[in-house]
């Protein structure tokens, strides 16, 4: 069973759960621990991750409208990005990169992809052929360098890596980014490790990047530890994510070497290189292509559930904050009855909540310019109302209705700000 499968199994256990109690989260954690430990993720790390999940799950209340499954999936996602990083921004300065990895992991192809990547962004690049084990490795890299339009240095049939690096550093002085391709064997051997140490000493790389194939399983952790022991890794690139592999080994590798994922390879072509993006990567790992929207929805729900009455009135009301506030108030029941109990007469239909209405308001607000969102008074203009109505697929009447609701809320906020008694009354209506 690969890691993704184990994680998916753990998540599947939560289907239908309506609350998160100790039993639910512990069963989930047990499954999660099994999956992570069998993927060779460091045991201590696994225990601290599941402990954090348990603490958070039991402390926090499920926000309204969010299922236990989505909520815990989001928490798991947050823990995983703590481990692997959320995104990667490469240093765009002259530098030397050493690529390492087992035979067939995609090092040579990735070297050319990276050279092309940096050169396209204004840093002239060159490739150095230091794979002295594989027949035709020299020719493969030379061909790829031509295709990528980047520099190349190698000494055909030379087996002394020291000589190659010395020659390369002399010949490629005018290049900003130097990328060194190395030998890889089917499994690590002492000879290979010794050779890599020599290359690293001579080349003095700024980055030492492990290239692993997305279908590498738990052995990725062992590989990463051994390469890390030899040269101290700085990052990981996962290749062949366009294939059937889901990249579970990457989690073992980053946890073993304590580095992040930098790029992913998504094809044989030289432009098939993408910057690592945690939402995409974890989504794939968990077999949830829609993870991005799940995470966005849960995070929005958490934010809304946490709006406190104090914050509601301290926050300046404008159209940027209106939607969130409106949703938060929706949980308090019809506002008109509340306002009546405060001794404020409100029109019966005031701020009536309904999902359709909220959706409509959201699309109207999305059609506003950022200026209009900040300064609601701009909407006194008929041409603007017309434009917003058209942009959001609403009628002008609907836009005007929303403006009226906005103004009512603004009035209420003003009262809350100025009157402690009203504030106190108001907080009674907040959901506990
Ligand atoms: N589909 C796919 N194939 C890749 C990717 N990266 C490398 N390959 C292929 O994998 C094979 C081995 O790649 P190579 O760069 O020679 O690996 P090396 O032995 O580590 O240098 C080649 O056929 C590449 O075209 C990738 O991201 N996606
Ligand atoms: Mg190679």
For this entry, give a set of tags.
432 residues; binds guanosine-5'-diphosphate; 3 domains; Four Helix Bundle (Hemerythrin (Met), subunit A); 20 helices; 8 strands; 434 Repressor (Amino-terminal Domain); elongated; binds magnesium ion; alpha/beta; Rossmann fold; 56% helix
What would you say this structure looks like, in words?
The chain contains 20 helices and eight strands. Helix 9 links the parallel strand 5 and strand 6. It is 56% helix and 10% strand. About 1% of the residues have low confidence. The chain has an eight-stranded mixed beta sheet, with helices on both faces. The chain folds into three domains: 83 residues, Up-down Bundle (Four Helix Bundle (Hemerythrin (Met), subunit A)); 182 residues, 3-Layer(aba) Sandwich (Rossmann fold); 122 residues, 434 Repressor (Amino-terminal Domain) (Orthogonal Bundle). With 432 residues, it is an alpha/beta fold. The structure holds guanosine-5'-diphosphate and magnesium ion. The site of guanosine-5'-diphosphate has 18 residues, from helix 5.
Global geometry: elongated
User: Please, what is the average pLDDT?
Assistant: 85
The count of domains is: 3
Query: Can you identify the CATH superfamily of the largest domain?
Result: P-loop containing nucleotide triphosphate hydrolases
CATH architecture of the largest domain: 3-Layer(aba) Sandwich
Strand content: 5-15%
Radius of gyration (CA) equals: 28 Å
- Main sheet properties: 8 strands, mixed
CATH topology of the largest domain, which one? Answer: Rossmann fold
Strand order of the largest sheet: 3-2-4-1-5-6-7-8
What molecules are bound to this protein? guanosine-5'-diphosphate, magnesium ion
CATH class of the largest domain equals Alpha Beta
Terminal-residue CA separation: 43 Å
Order of helices and strands: HHHHEHEHEHEHEHEHEEHHHHHHHHHH
Regions with little confidence, pLDDT below 50 for 5+ residues: 345-350
Label the structural class.
alpha/beta
Tell me how many strands there are.
Answer: 8
The portion of residues assigned to helices is 55-70%
Number of separate helices? 20
